[in-house]
Structure formats: structure tokens, C-alpha cells
Amino acid sequence: MSSLHSNAPAHSLAATKRTIVKAFDGRKFEEIFDEFQEKPLGVGAIAQVYKAKLKPDIAIQGDNDMDPDPPNLRQRMRKNVDVLVKSTPSRVPSSYVAIKVLHPKVERIVRRDLKIMTIFAAIINAIPTMEWLSLPDEVVQFGEMMRLQLDLRIESANLTMFRKKFKDRTTAWFPYPYASYTTRQVLIEEFAQGIPLAAFLEDGGGVFQQEIADEGLDAFLHMLLIDNFIHADLHPGNIMVRFYKPEQISLSFGRHKESTSPTANSIDVTEQVLQQLRPHRHNPSAWLNELQKIDAEGYRPQLIFIDTGLVTALNQTNRTNFLDLFKAIAEFDGYRAGHLMVERCRQPDAVIDKEVFALKMQHLVLGVKSSTFALGNIKIGDVLNEVLSMVRAHHVRMEGDFVNVVISILLLEGIGRSLDPDLDLFKSALPILRQLGAQSGGKGLMDALRRGDTGLLKVWVGLEARKFLQASAEQVESCVRYDQLSPNV
After folding, report:
1. Using H for helix, E for strand and C for coil, what is the string for the chain?
2. What's the pTM value of the predicted model, to 2 decimals?
3. Do 309 and 155 form a contact (C-beta atoms < 8 A)?
4. What is the C-alpha to C-alpha distance for residues 100 and 43, in angstroms, rounded to an integer?
5. Neighbour tally for 350: CB within 10 Å
6. CA 341, CA 108: separation in Å to the nearest integer?
7. With contact defined as beta carbons under 8 Å apart, do 237 and 293 qualify?
8. What's the pLDDT tens digit per position in 233-281?
């Protein structure tokens, strides 16, 4: 199956050129690109990707979709704080683009395969005791997901949405989509100049491993808790790492417009740094030494997220269910988590031994309580396997988008364990919930409360209580260990 991810059979270059020319309204292929690499960077089951350089009259100059208005005093002050605290990346747009082209006739092939799956799902569903799986419904849901990937305009729109949501956040970044040249069959976006995160998982993150892990988790939790717009395909191949030199602090607080776009003489240092790293792939010791040199030269890592064709946005019901479950697990209340899963699944009446299921969840959660949720102390993948086994045994059917969110969280396990074993999912969520509470004097939380959505507030209060109790326990342990409770005689 892994060979289908990036090494599937490629379609012809002639078919690619025809599709691209059509997207540019018949403009000659030679008038579109200064350079075009004819060998695809990757070939998947649905599309293949090329690297090219657009003609200057087509290429964008700067992130012109990110900050159309001159920044006000508050924004300039905030940017200076970001420079001091988290080092705002200095963006120099790439002149190269990535071009994703659907395979010819792929839509017809997918429709055929879905019809075959529908027939087999109906046959299996007719078998006694198998109807609880509701396989026909699952095929319908899978078909919807596949159809979304067959229209590349959706991926372009998702990129635009992510860029808007992350424009004021200092590290995670999404490529610029050329929406005006994107069609159902072609997606053109800024080329993500970086090294796949998988390289850092294989050879090590060195001095940057904790920073990369923290930024990745921070970005995901922002998507999950604040934006409710979640990248649903966050495997290491879809996360790139580039390096940048931090911006200088702006001392201009006047009303005149400040130029923030790169000048014509700006040098994109990303490729220069990546050239230092690439020769040391698969040589961990040399790779880690080079990372130390890059750190000494003042470069910082930045994460780039690509392949945004699959996103998840929970509806109000599923979001409330997820946050209630998130809070229950954060409080190590496995019994309540089990009952929540039963009460809010698709077919509560079909669940077998509801009380036993809740008690099993309690036993599972208590088993990992002593390790908290630091990824190095527990294997979330093993926990997931046990939960899935219990779900199957007791016929607990969860909503598809709910499951997608849970799986997205679990994909962080391998990343977090390899980069920073002490990463704590719930501890990392606290600053984001505090940020949400502080936005516009708590306007975000107040709006949610007026809508009757108390989930975020419950999670926030629960996590604050958890942190307080943990801190209190650590202080008591410290007092006992160092005999600070004894009278000083």
C-alpha cells in the first residue's frame, strides 16, 4: 500500500501539458513556465506533482493575500513582542511552484470502485449480526471523502482558509495557492522549500527537536481548539521544515505605511541552509553536527503544512461531544468517558454491555494515569488499539469526522515520541485555551457560552484544575523529600 502513496504509475507528460494549458485558458505551455521539471516529484493514486518556475508576469511578488492593509499600532507592537518571544519568520516567497495534476479518467475509476464497494457492503450488511457495522453508510462517507479529493479547487480553498487563520501566528505556514489558475484537474501552489519532517524523525532533530515538536503540537491544537478547521492528513510526509533568520524589531510606530514585502535584492536563505543539510541525510552524526552549526548561525526552524485536501470541521454536536470527551480524559475520568462514547455514538441501542464498556474505559485510563499523557511515557497507539478492540466488541459506532479528529491526534504520537518524549498533549493545550479566553476580553468564550457551547470552558477549567493539583502534589512531595515540614529547631 505504501507504494501507492508516491510511487503509483504515472500518466504521460503530454496529458499533463494538455491539462495545464487548459487551466491557463489556452496559453502556450512555453509561455507559462521559465522552467518545468518533466519528471514528477511524486505520483499518487489520484494525482502526480511537478516542480516548475512560472514566468515573472504570472508569479506573485510577496504574500499579497496575507496583509492587504497597513498594520496599526497594536499590530506593530504585537509583531515586536513576537520577534522577542518567538522570532517571527522573515518570509521570502519562492519563485517556484508545485503543480498537482489529476490522472486522466481518475474520476470514472473512482466511481466504478465505489459502486463495487457498495455492492459488497450491501452483501455483508445482509449477514445476521453484521448490520451494526452499517457498511453501506461507511462506503457513502468514504465516497464523499474521495470526491472531495477529486476537485483540486477544494484543496486550494483550504489553503486559503489555513493561511488566513495562521497569518498572525509566528511559525506554522501554508503555501500560497494560485486560485485563479486552479481548476478541478490542476492545483498550482507555491513550492514548499524544505525538508520533510520524516528526515528529522529518521536522523534526529538535534538542538531543534523540542522546538519542532512544540510548534507542531501548538499548530495542531490551534486548529483543533480555536479554529475547528483541522488538517486531517498530518503524517510526517505532509509536514516540511525550513529554516529562517529572525526579523529585526521595527522601531517605527508612526502612521506611515511600513514596507514588509521582500525587496528585489532579498536573498532566500532557505535553499542555502537546506543545501548544507541534504548531503548528510542518512548519516545521523553528521546531520546532528550540521544542525548545531545552523543553530549557531542564528537560524530557526519553521513548519510548512502541505496537502490540505482533507480537512475536518466538527459540527456543533460532534464538537461538544469531542470537548466533553477531551475533558473527561484530561481529568482521568475513564468511566464518564466510556458513558459519553456510548450515549453519543450513532446507535446507542445497539451497544452491548454499556456498563462493562464504561468500566473497561475506566480501567484503561487508570492504567496510564501515573504516566500522565507525556508521549514518551505511554504509547498512544497501543491505547488506541485497545480502545478500538473494545469498540468493536461492544458495537460502539462513532461519527466519522469525530474519528478523523481522534486519528489526527494519534498521528502526533510518532512525531512527538521521536522528537520530544516529554511532550504532554493536555499541558500544551492550556496556553491555547488561555489565549482563547483572553481574545477581545474573553469575547470568544462569551460568544460560545451564549450559543450554549460550554465545552471549551469545561475543558479549560478542568485542565487548570489538573495542573494545579499536579503542582500541589509535586510541592508536597518536595516538602516531604527535603524535610521542609519539620519544625526548624
Report:
1. CCHHHHECCCCCHHHHHHHHHHHCCCCCHHHCEEEECCCCCEECCCEEEEEEEECCCCCCCCCCCCCCCCCCHHHHHHHHHHHHHHCCECCCCCCEEEEEEECCCHHHHHHHHHHHHHHHHHHHHCCCCCHHHCHHHHHHHHHHHHHHHCCHHHHHHHHHHHHHHHCCCCCCECCCECHHHCCCCEEEEECCCCEEHHHHHHHCCHHHHHHHHHHHHHHHHHHHHHHCCEECCCCHHHEEEEEECECCCCCCCCCCCCCCCCCCCCCCHHHHHHHHHHHHCCCHHHHHHHHHHHHHCCCEEEEEECCCCCEECCCHHHHHHHHHHHHHHHCCCHHHHHHHHHHCCCCHHHCCCHHHHHHHHHHHHHHHHCCCCECCCCCHHHHHHHHHHHHHHHCCCCCHHHHHHHHHHHHHHHHHHHHCCCCEHHHHHHHHHHHHHHHHHCHHHHHHHHCCCCHHHHHHHHHHHHHHHHHHHHHHHHHHHCCCCCCCC
2. 0.75
3. yes
4. 10
5. 15
6. 38
7. no
8. 888 888 999 888 776 555 554 444 443 433 344 445 777 888 889 899 8
Q: How far is residue 182 from each of residues 43, 112, 152, 157, 164, measured CA to CA in Å?
A: 19, 26, 7, 10, 19
pLDDT digits (tens, 9 = 90+) for 384-439: 678 878 888 898 887 766 666 666 666 665 566 666 666 666 666 666 555 555 55
Mean residue pLDDT of the chain comes to: 76
The residues facing 99 across adjacent strands are: 50, 188
Which residues is 102 bridged to in the sheet?
47
Instruction: Give the list of residues 6+ apart from residue 93 with CB closer than 8 angstroms, or none.
Output: 60, 61, 62, 63, 176, 190, 262
From CA 383, how far away is CA 370, in angstroms rounded?
Answer: 14
Listed in sequence order, the residues at least 6 apart from 265 whose beta carbon sits closer than 8 Å to its beta carbon are none
- Please state, as a whole number, how many other Cβ atoms lie within 10 Å of the Cβ of residue 382: 11
> How many CB atoms are located within 10 Å of the residue 83 CB?
16
Distance of CA 152 to the CA centre of its chain: 19
7 by Cβ neighbours in 10 Å (0-12 / 13-18 / 19+) ranks as: exposed
Enter the C-alpha cell of residue 358. Answer: 464504561
CA 237 to chain centre: 12
Assigned C-alpha cell, 6: 508516491
Count other Cβ atoms within 10 Å, centred on residue 355: 11
Rg (CA), the chain: 25
pLDDT in tens, 255-267: 444 434 333 444 4
Are 176 and 189 spatial neighbours (Cβ–Cβ below 8 Å)?
A: yes
Question: Do the strands 239-244 and 96-102 form a parallel or antiparallel pair, or are they unpaired?
Answer: unpaired
Tell me the mean pLDDT in the region 453-458: 50
